[in-house]
Design goal:
It is built from 16 helices and 11 strands. The chain is α/β, with parallel strands linked by helices. The structure holds nicotinamide-adenine-dinucleotide and magnesium ion.
């Protein structure tokens, strides 16, 4: 039997990282952990190293690396501890690695994910922000290196499963009319609009169907997550924004659909558990047990659909605008959103202000063409700066009031 595949898990302590390790642990004959990374939860990372015994662990800085290295050595582990972006890129591109789970949240994942792509790895993409920011460059790097890019986002994984194997010939060529991207609508789907001013981070993070990290939970509540996913779908499947329709489906059982010209609509269904898309991508083109319970359609009983309300969810409209504008617009949208979500989680702004910040940043800066990673990073930096100004102006506005 062949040796187990060597897997790097970037963002191992997060929600996707832990689900990935759960799947890996079910198939020790197939998969072995090569490297694990974490940013802040070092005790958790240490515990994961004890279980999975990776060759490498990666932490945020030199001090944390020394601390963890000392503790792992004292426990008799040979794991080498690296740090920072360089350490992440090293374990993403390492010659011995077969597949990389890109599950760092936000722009911080861009360079390590690109490093895995450029090294021609099998890349399991959870870190949608990386693709949203750098779409054209990212996809060009995939083509040049021959990397195998598999979507982990449940919707994109569903779309991938519903498309024919040769979809890269072009959606129209393979008879696709539309992609139907489903969305739960999050915890505020029916909250009276005036109450949105008073919602707390705890309420925003209490997703009705999925248990996820805090940033993506807030994105789901604002539907910015669906906006980012719209852009993600355009890049992954070479779709125009107008070919992707968002459908609210509160049960989160249908993970997305593909509508063909002959009237056939294919859907992928399953319990809302990320171990399904993770297992699918890890084993693709084979299938393995994920630990997810079989779908009980009698318990689900009904499937509902609604059109999204862009008044309630302005982030959806802003994302579609950024998708249509192209160039640096999605990177700016993403960066402004990251700053706004962090401010909301720190209780510095109210929930509806997330969209206001993004809108203001997108209006303040002209969209430029994306010719290099530097252009993407500059747009990201500029948008963060503008969002920072918005926040400090807000405080002075409130001080005057
Ligand atoms: P999370 O917050 O639970 O975990 C994030 C991980 O990234 C942690 O391991 C953390 O240590 C690491 N990290 C955070 N900041 C970092 C930094 N600056 N440098 C290096 N590492 C850093 O997030 P999550 O819910 O697991 O989501 C991870 C990614 O997967 C996100 O891009 C999210 O949009 C995407 N995703 C998540 C889900 C889900 O169900 N959780 C579903 C679809 C897509
Ligand atoms: Mg998703």
């Amino acid at each position: 039997m062949s040796r187990p595949q060597q897997i790097t898990v970037l963002g191992a302590t997060g929600s996707i990282g832990l689900s990935t390790l759960d799947v890996i642990a079910r198939h020790p004959e197939r998969y072995q952990v090569f490297a694990l990374s974490a940013f802040s939860r070092l005790a958790e990372l240490e515990a994961l190293c004890m279980i999975y015994r990776p060759l490498f662990a990666v932490v945020a800085d030199a001090q944390a690396a020394r601390d963890l290295q000392g503790r792992l050595q004292a426990s008799g582990l040979a794991t080498r501890v690296l740090f920072g972006e360089a350490g992440l890129c090293e374990v993403a591109a390492h010659a011995e690695v077969d597949a990389v789970m890109a599950a760092i949240v936000g722009a911080a994942g861009l360079k390590p994910t690109l490093a895995a792509v450029e090294a021609g790895k099998k890349v399991l993409l959870a870190n949608k922000e990386a693709l949203v920011m750098s779409g054209a460059l990212f996809m060009q790097a995939v083509r040049q290196s021959g990397a195998v890019l598999l979507p982990i986002d449940s919707e994109h994984n569903a779309i991938f499963q519903c498309l024919p194997g040769d979809y890269a010939r072009g959606l129209t060529q393979v008879g696709v009319r539309r992609i139907l991207l489903t969305a739960s609508g999050g915890p505020f789907r029916e909250t009276p609009m005036e109450q949105l001013l008073a919602v707390t981070p705890e309420q925003a993070c209490a997703h009705p169907n999925w248990s996820m990290g805090r940033k993506i939970s807030v994105d789901s509540a604002s539907m910015m997550n669906k906006g980012l996913e719209l852009i993600e779908a355009c890049w992954l499947f070479d779709a125009r924004p107008a070919q992707v329709e968002v459908v609210i489906h509160p049960q989160s059982v249908i993970h997305s659909l593909v509508d063909y010209v002959d009237g056939s609509v294919l859907a992928q269904l399953g319990n809302p558990d990320m171990r399904t898309p993770i297992s699918h991508a890890l084993a693709w083109p084979e299938r393995i047990d994920s630990g997810v319970a079989p779908l009980d359609l009698f318990a689900v009983a009904r499937l509902d659909f609604q059109a999204p309300d862009e008044q309630r969810f302005p982030c959806l409209r802003l994302s579609r605008q950024a998708a249509e504008a192209g160039g640096t617009a999605p990177a700016m949208l993403n960066a402004a959103n990251e700053v706004a979500v962090a401010a909301f989680l720190e209780r510095r702004i109210r929930f509806p202000e997330i969209a206001r910040i993004i809108d203001s940043v997108l209006n303040a800066q002209a969209v430029e063409a994306v010719e290099s990673l530097d252009a993407v990073l500059a747009a990201d930096g500029r948008a963060r700066e503008l969002a920072g100004h918005w926040l400090s102006d807000r405080n002075s506005r409130r001080g005057e009031a």
